[in-house]
Amino acid sequence: MSESTQTPTSSRDVGMILQESEDNRPIIEAIEEDNPECSISHTPGLVRITAPGRLVVLQESVEEKLGREWETHEFQMSIVSYFGNIQEWDDDEIVIAWDH
Q1: This prediction's pTM
Q2: What is the pLDDT of residues 41-86, one digit of tens each?
Q3: Cα→Cα distances 23→64, 70, 92, Å
Q4: Can you say how many angstroms the Cα of residue 81 is from the centroid of all Cα atoms in its chain?
Q5: Which of 29, 36, 64, 94 has the fewest CB within 10 Å, making it most exposed?
Q6: Phi-psi region of 93 (alpha: psi -120 to 50; beta: other; left: phi over 0)
Q7: Above pLDDT 90, what percent of the chain?
Q8: Cα(46)–Cα(17) distance, integer angstroms
Q9: What CA–CA distances, in Å, run from 42 to 21, 30, 59?
Q10: Following DSSP, what letter does each residue of 11-75 receive, concatenated?
Q11: Which residue, 78, 69, 99, is CA-closest to 23?
């Protein structure tokens, strides 16, 4: 287990808002599976994902859902907004959490 997959330091909600589209649906499914405590709400054209303390987007999970290679920088085309701090954004994962 890497440091970024450890228990969050805060239980305040973090989250992200993604564009709702066919292209993003597999990404949203991967996030939901990798973050079992998250909640997802849909508004016209947008999907809001929140979780207590921490959200992770794993490259491997997204690739599995998409059925193709996926680079984490592609996430910039999906995300509209987020709340929390981006603690990590590398080739393998994106982590949003609060520092305090």
Answers
A1: 0.86
A2: 999 999 999 999 999 999 999 999 999 999 999 999 999 999 999 9
A3: 14, 12, 20
A4: 11
A5: 36
A6: beta
A7: 87
A8: 7
A9: 11, 16, 23
A10: -SEEEEEEE-STTTHHHHHHHHHH-TT-EEEEETTEEEEEEESEEEEEHHHHHHHHTS---GGGG
A11: 78
